[in-house]
Specification:
0% strand; mainly alpha; elongated
């Protein structure tokens, strides 16, 4: 993979995770929001991808955990909303 493409994907991950934290800290979004979880999922994936490309396995692992925590939280939110809508 091109180093430029890999670096671009990595920077997208940095921007996504940092933006999620900034918006949360400024109370623009809540931790339970789809936006927060989506930004963390995208950021974790992009950072894991770049770490994999550079053979940085501890960083791959940390960012995959970050991504899967976001997927779990988003899935849980969607299931809870669906149950509430069906009641």
């Amino acid at each position: 993979m091109s180093k430029i493409v890999s670096a671009g994907i990595g920077w997208l991950g940095v921007v996504s995770c940092t933006l999620a934290y900034l918006l949360l800290s400024m109370k623009v979004i809540q931790a339970e929001s789809r936006v927060f979880q989506s930004l963390n999922i995208v950021g974790g994936f992009c950072l894991a991808f770049t770490a994999f490309d550079t053979h940085d396995l501890p960083n791959v692992t940390a960012n995959l955990f970050w991504m899967f925590i976001g997927i779990y939280a988003l899935g849980r939110q969607l299931r809870t909303r669906n149950r509430a809508g069906n009641s």
